[in-house]
Specification:
Rossmann fold, alpha/beta, about 400 residues, Dehydroquinate synthase-like, alpha domain
Length: about 400
């Protein structure tokens, strides 16, 4: 007779949070924020601690005062426990755990509880760092995200993850912590530098190529307009891309990525490695553009994607303003191996030991593979280098 007993525990938890698209959230549309945090009893005062990306603070010098004034006007419902706290923006905040612990210390100093709110206004890196800190205090505080970049409004800011970098690896440490609410204020996009304006377009190409052919054709047709800061095209891009990301999280059956398939990381095995190899000189969107180009050329070699569609992608990315080749992509180790191939090993470890990489299967469809032929990757790297210099090896005319 066995001398042990097994009890099978099983339960599910439903998550529900609004993703709001608006403008002037700390002005005329402040009720949008108020409505997302109405207390359960309708009477309690909701306590808030707000963190602001330093770059957003620089571009919007009156923002702190506007936030304070808005909270003062609704003091019967909201309490801002201290003036908004400005944090260093950019990837540096994800590389420095002292900053993370300073956020934790600030949350504890003002005695926020699990019914309080941590709001964060900024780009993806600051959203990640503050979200991570908030998720580990009292096992998770209510987080309100106010993304301010294209990349955060159409991708990471609407999802359920946050992360920190460690030992040169991207997002090695992190948690799954769904936000209480996401508020995309489109007005923040108008002040973005050109580099940040286009950064999130790469993620749109990513999700379009594997999920939505119509959206992919839209991106290719509007590439030059996006590069020239076509506001209407960008707003449509942000909304559709965010919707596709949310649909995947909602319907994939694996929102916390317990399995080995991560379709939304198409193009990312090389992108993450490229970022770390450059010491994050290459931004995430720029790295993703290169990763998509590389994986699409690989897909052509494997017979999964037509050459004309891969070239449409590359041309679209270039017309948007991306540089697809970075010197790090051709860097080799002492034994002659391309250093970027180490991204496959990093990706395998991150997935749990078994490699599973997503590639397009035609436009608007995808498939996963557990094997990557490294010689074919080398061939794709060489071709991307040639294309970047205008020396297209193939005789086909690139689509106009």
């Amino acid at each position: 007779m066995p001398n042990h007993n097994i009890y099978r525990q099983s339960f599910s938890v439903a998550f529900d949070y609004p993703v709001v698209f608006t403008r002037d959230v700390f002005g005329s549309n402040f009720p949008v924020l108020l409505e997302t945090v109405i207390s359960d009893d309708g009477q309690s005062v909701s306590r808030f601690l707000i963190f602001i990306d330093s770059e957003v603070h620089r571009l919007h010098p009156g923002l702190v005062n506007r936030i304070q004034s808005s909270f003062d006007r609704h003091a019967d419902r909201l309490e801002l426990v201290k003036p908004p706290h400005v944090l260093q923006g950019g990837e540096a905040i994800k590389n420095d755990y002292r900053m993370t612990m300073e956020i934790v210390d600030t949350i504890l100093e003002y005695k926020l509880c699990r019914h309080s709110y941590v709001a964060v206004v900024g780009g993806g890196a600051v959203l990640d760092a503050v979200g991570f800190a908030a998720s580990i205090v009292h096992r998770g505080l209510r987080t309100v995200r106010l993304p301010t970049t294209v990349l955060s409004q159409n991708d990471g800011g609407v999802g359920v993850k946050n992360g920190m970098n460690l030992h040169g690896g991207k997002n090695i440490v992190g948690t799954f912590h769904p936000p209480h609410a996401v508020i995309n204020d489109m007005d923040f996009l108008s002040t973005l530098p050109d580099r940040e304006w286009i950064a999130g377009v790469a993620e749109a190409y990513k999700v379009a190529l594997i999920k939505d052919e119509k959206f992919f054709r839209f991106l290719c047709a509007h590439a030059r307009g996006l590069n020239n800061r076509d506001n209407r095209a960008m707003e449509l891009l942000v909304r559709r891309c965010a919707d596709l990301h949310m649909e995947h999280i909602r319907s994939s059956g694996d929102p916390f990525e317990t399995g080995r398939s991560r379709p939304l990381d198409f193009g990312h095995w090389a992108a993450h490695k490229l970022e770390s190899m450059s010491n994050y000189r290459i931004g995430h969107g720029e790295a993703v553009a290169s990763g998509l180009a590389l994986d699409s050329l690989y897909a052509v070699e494997m017979g999964w994607l037509e050459e004309k569609d891969a070239h449409a992608l590359l041309k679209g990315l270039q017309d948007t303003g991306f540089m697809l080749w970075h010197e790090e992509m051709g860097r080799r180790l002492g034994d002659g191996t391309l250093e970027i191939l180490g991204g496959l090993d990093d990706f395998r470890e991150h997935l749990g030991g078994e490699l599973c990489v997503t590639f397009p299967l035609g436009v608007g469809q995808k498939h996963e593979t557990q094997h990557i032929d490294r010689k074919t990757v080398e061939k794709a790297v060489t071709e991307l280098s040639d294309i970047s210099r205008g020396e297209l090896r193939r005789a086909r005319q690139v689509m106009p």
